[in-house]
Amino acid sequence: MSQMNRRRALQLLAALGTTGLAAGCGSDTEKDTTQPGSPVKIGLIVPSAGPNKAVGEDLTRGFQLFLSLNDQQLGGHPTTLVTAEEGEDAKSGQAAVDRLIKEGALALTGVVSPTVLSGIRDTVEQARVPLIASNASPSSLQSVVYIWRTSYVLDEPGEAIGQYLRQMLKDPSSRIAIITPDSPSSRDVIAGFRRGYEQGRQLSNEPIFTPDEPNPGRSAYSEAIQKALGQRPDAIFCNYTGTAAVQFIKELYDQGYRKKIYGPGFLTEGIVLGDLDDGEGGKQRGRILDSGIETALNYSPDLNNTANRVFASAYRKTYNASPTTYAMASYDAAQVLDKAIRLVGKSPTPQQVNLALGKIGQVDSPRGAWQFNQTRTPQQKWYLRRVQLDGRMLANVVINELATLG
Length: 406
Known about the structure:
The chain has 14 helices and 14 strands.
């Protein structure tokens, strides 16, 4: 918010009924006399189809929202956002990077799939064009110079919830059943969970892996759930997203499980709660509220800070939807580019912007203040969220702060 055009900020705050916040933005009669710099292009890499389409839409919305609140400028330069198809593998990701660089992109952003992100690593590094990746990053992506991330590393949500469960389950002999897809991302999440939980104790059971299917059929998880319930767990930790998360949670309840479910925040992010919610008096809603689903994430729309009040309200007004962590991280990708380009000044080059990204310092984000660490990922707070009613709908409600990681 520190770089937002003052007149636009005042208009937005007034529209939201928060004129008391406007004092820090200057007088409404104040003129912005800064002349815009040369136009720049930013390349956005997102999927337009497939299981990651919804996340890609959130990334697009978050970045575009920042531009709309800043007169379509980054760092004082008129900005064009050029989109390229991410696809589902390294080959399609590399084609997107090549195309955007040929079209003169000053920097790149987006990338939903951790697999694609790993696959384009060398292409980005050799091109010497900064990529501000705005979704979860694999822990294996290290020793990079031109890749920055505004989301988180995949082992961090597992570590945050693992630390929490170590405190909640006082008995060292407590049994936790771990069920996840068989994927590199899940192995990162499990590694983080072990690191957070196994301090002076050990998990008694090995993880149960299921096929990594983005659109599973009915009873896809039946055998794995039966095996997990046979362990008589005190809690279940799982790592599913989107349609797979909906199907897994439904099957788990259908097989009689009534204790708490824990996982990374993307377990209940995006479409999941809407697809699970069968309304007032519904069986599915009753099970969720009675047993409880708790997750760890770096963001929730109900966080009470000035940056989030403006972001979340503007997002809802613009898109008629509640913002996700995906949209927030993309909004922050635009924000850090805004800061870096402003530091460079006139006629920025990709290499100059990359150097400036290391100098931007603290970011005033909807998630709370954060900054890049030495590995070019955020040092940030993690929050415990519980699925509760917010008005008439299920929502992820922050109930506590967890660790600061990164």
